[in-house]
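RECORD TYPE: protein structure
NAME: DNA-binding transcriptional regulator NtrC
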Amino acid sequence: MASETTRLLMLIDDEPAQSRLVTALAAREGWRTLVVGSSDEALEALGTEEGADVRAVLLDQWVPGDAACELIRDIRAARPDVPLLMLTASTSPLLAVEAMRAGATDYLIKPVGPDRLMAALRSATRDEAPRDELQPMTEKLPAELDFDAMVGTAAPFRTALAKAATAARGHGNVLVEGDSGTGKEMLMRAMHAASTRAKAVMKLVGCGSMPATSLESLVFGHEKGAFAGAFDRQTGLLEHCDGGTLILDDIDRMDLPQQDRLADVLESGIVRPTGAAHGFKIDVRVFASSDVPLEELAASGAFSQRLYDALGTTRIHLPALRERMGDIPALTRHFLAKIGQQPGFTHHSIADSGLTLLEAYDWPGNVRQLQSVLYRACVHEQREALTAHSFPQLAELLGDNPDRGESRARGLGVLLYEEDGNLRPLEEIEADIIRLAIGHYRGRMTEVARRLGIGRSTLYRKLSELGIDNAA
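PREDICTED:
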């Protein structure tokens, strides 16, 4: 059988150039690729001794032979436990949705970058990774680039948004920290869109998605002949973003020498490409993110103290979803509305039994994982409302009576009764209605007051009286 270091990927594709690219990318992480050019070849190969070693299948949408969805069903019947990913050239999710309904695990939009391909393969084949509905999606829903799209009323979250909105109007560099999946990239994009540089160039690069040498050339640039293989001059993103914003995702994964080099640029305002005799004066604003607190890494010497000082003037921490469980109903409504607007989907609501499961789970993958779970549920659910049956893996994990804790009073409606059958105090019901309104109207307090039929000053007085935190 294939060893862990020689995992076998079956690629069903008749394009030689793309096959060579995927084979080379997969080889970087110990994958050996078996390339087949048609559905018949694929099914025949799966039945061989070598085919028994296949750990994942990557299917190009345009493979000749049977329709892609029919082939997916056939592969799923032959190898039900093998992750199956589809490559599609269409930016519309319609074909991908059809493929997932046929049994595909995930999909990628061409041209596929090395970081997305590797992330998809890692997610699909990691033994300890959550499977089925809890597995993260590789592609993301189109992001709205403004603060109104950042849904939630929990105090730590609203505080982070308020701080980000203030920082966006400034001119300094910004560091955004928080667990993976909390929305750091979306927040940084929203900050650029709200800044005075909104109409200038903005580029984003994932520091952990490429080799150190490639990242160095991408960020700083190089001159022709600077090193073996440097056949042409490459303009770095720091120079390219002059007057605009450079977003560096996962900056903690940048090598230490590059961190110090970036600190030099931020301190001096001058970038010198590798191999260049002189530098260029630039005006670039840097937004950086990290999944881990950089202060601790800098103190231990694992991160450049100079770069931390240059970035950490404004630090924003995005709380994990488990720290803002009361936001789950509002986030759920928001994501269901967005998903329902995508081709191939219908608009879904969520029943209380489904929401109970969502509120009881601790969401290690945070908001991104919640969105993926809802997306997968909408792919497969034919009924209008998502129920507990729409989330079979969550139901299996949490059992028949999941504990929603304090968040159960923040569902799609407002609970009127205590557990003993008596009415809840009017003050508690009123507080829940205000929280529900704030979440529904995404913290727009003028709109909340108008819809509740009270003045804005009255609303803020009630927030104080009822002890409702609001950082909007």
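COMMENT: The first helix runs from residue 16 to 27.
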